[in-house]
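Quick one: structure tokens for this chain, please?
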Amino acid sequence: MSAVLLGLILLAAPDVTAVLKQLEDAGRNLATMQARFQETKVLVLLEEKSEARGSVLLQVPGRLRWDYEAPQQSVTLVKDGRFSRYLPRAKQVFRGPARGEADLLVGFGPGAAGLGRKYEVVLVGEESVGSDAAYVLDLKPQPAQSASALFSAIRLWVDKARHFPVQTRLTEPTGDHTTVRFEGVRINARLPANAFDLVLPRDVVEVK
């Protein structure tokens, strides 16, 4: 390979700063997001693996809904700084202040801003996620935030064309990790007016 060709390749290759800026610009323009998802959770010490699927809705600012369809139906809703988790089979709803529920959507909307300040970010390379070509970013909490961070590491696969995550892997300090793959992502489509309403039966038991 000639030195000229090598130089052109290096100039064309994005660096981590450029990818983060693309991600942040796309997040700044995000009003709504809806997608299907596949979630894989691995418990390392127990050597257990579980899979789930469903749909997700996001509305900026501060509204998030996860509808799990399989293997068991449930709804997780974040709205106005509070979370609700409804388990139809158990007829229970859990409520409390929102904490880490939105971290599954790190890189979307406001969650894309300031990642370089919150994390040490490394551009690992490029991979395909389904039919999407993606940049792969590894995020590690900055030392000042590592003690309070819910996750010890985050990996983002960022769509090269549309500049939003198509897959996320969140690793806990224990080594357990959750991978969420997004499919059929629709950006800034109109959502139903009641998309973030949680309709519960009368006999549901509330747990706080």
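Residues 3-12 have pLDDT under 50 and may be disordered.
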